[in-house]
Model the fold of this input.
Amino acid sequence: MIEGGCECGAIRYETAGQVTDFSHCHCSQCRRLHGAPYVSFAGVVLADMTWKSGPGALRVYDSSAKNRRYFCASCGSQIMVVSAEEPDVAYLALGCIDGDPELPDGYHQFVDSKAPWVNILDELPQFPEAVDE
Ligand SMILES: [Zn+2]
Ligand SMILES: [Zn+2]
Done:
């Protein structure tokens, strides 16, 4: 069971499903939207998710023609990204997930857009742009 939520507590979710995809995204949109050096995501099956509180507090921002970002209207926490190319997958912002979820092997994507002051120090695979799976 994976549980998570936003900073203010308005939004809480859980999923009984497994994390099927674990990525660190260095694209400029993720960096700006999360105010972070890069953003880690846990891909889960969207239909497996249950909103325990506050789904009505979710707001959406279409950061591109295909990517819809969901965030908390009260505190601004970025909750997840859903892509029109994979509408059945929720890419949860891993920083909003509680505890230590079981994760598959990770990778870095959009490394060509990496912040110049970030050094990638792990041995995970690096992809210059998006990863097609
Ligand atoms: Zn919130
Ligand atoms: Zn990104």
Q: What stands out?
A: The CA atoms of residues 107 and 123 lie 9 Å apart.
